[in-house]
Amino acid sequence: xxxxxxxxxxxxxxxxxxxxxxxxxxxxxxxxxxxxxxxxxxxxxxxxxxxxxxxxxxxxxxxxxxxxxxxxxxxxxxxxxxxxxxxxxxxxxxxxxxxxxxxxxxxxxxxxxxxxxxxxxxxxxxxxxxxxxxxxxxxxxxxxxxxxxxxxxxxxxxxxxxxxxxxxxxxxxxxxxxxxxxxxxxxxxxxxxxxxxxxxxxxxxxxxxxxxxxxxxxxxxxxxxxxxxxxxxxx
Length: 235
What we know:
Layout: H1 13-17, E1 27-31, H2 38-50, E2 56-59, H3 66-81, E3 86-90, H4 93-98, E4 103-106, H5 113-120, E5 125-129, H6 134-142, E6 147-150, H7 168-177, E7 182-185, H8 194-199, E8 203-206, H9 208-211, H10 217-234
Helix pairs in contact: 2-3, 2-10
C-alpha cells in the first residue's frame, strides 16, 4: 500500500539509512551523461560532488555491454559512495545488486517496478519514472518504489525525444499526501527550477545543467544548489 503522509515511512533500508537520501528539503540528483569514459569522468564526478550538496548519482549508460557497465561501476561507485552519496543504476537492478550499488531506477518501458523490486530485494533503493501520471506514481508506490520521478517538466537537451509531460502541480499533490520522495526531471536548470522546488520536489535530477556548464561540473553544482536555496527562501 502506498505510504501516506503521517503513516510509516518506506520499509526499504536504503531510503532510511543512506544519509544522502534521508534528509529534508530539496536536493540535487545527478544523472550521468549516457556516454562517458569512466577514467576521465571520474575526476569530473569527484569535482562535482565536492562542490556542494548532492543526494544521489544515477549512472545512465546506453547501448553498452555488461563488461562496460561493470568496468564503469568499478571506477565510479567508490567515488560516489565514499562521499556518502547514493549510487544508483539506470535500468539495471541486476547489476546494482551484484556490484554493491545502492539501488536502481527503472522506466515504464524498461522493467516493471514489481520485477525490479524482486531483483533488488528489500534492502536496495528503487526509483520509478512516472512521467506526468498520478496513476503511474501510485502504482509505483504500490509495487515497491522508494521514490517516484515526474517529468519531463521542460524540453530536455539530453533526451530530445522526451515530451514535456508534467506540471509543478503534480509535485505539490504528491508531496502533500505521500511519504515517498518525488524527483523532478527534464530540462531543469538554475533559471527554471524555482517552481519545482516550491511545489515540493524532494530532488531535482539534472544532466546538462551540471555536465555541460561552461565553467565545469563543479560550477554547475554550485549554481544548482544556489538556485535551490534561493527558491526555498522565497517559498
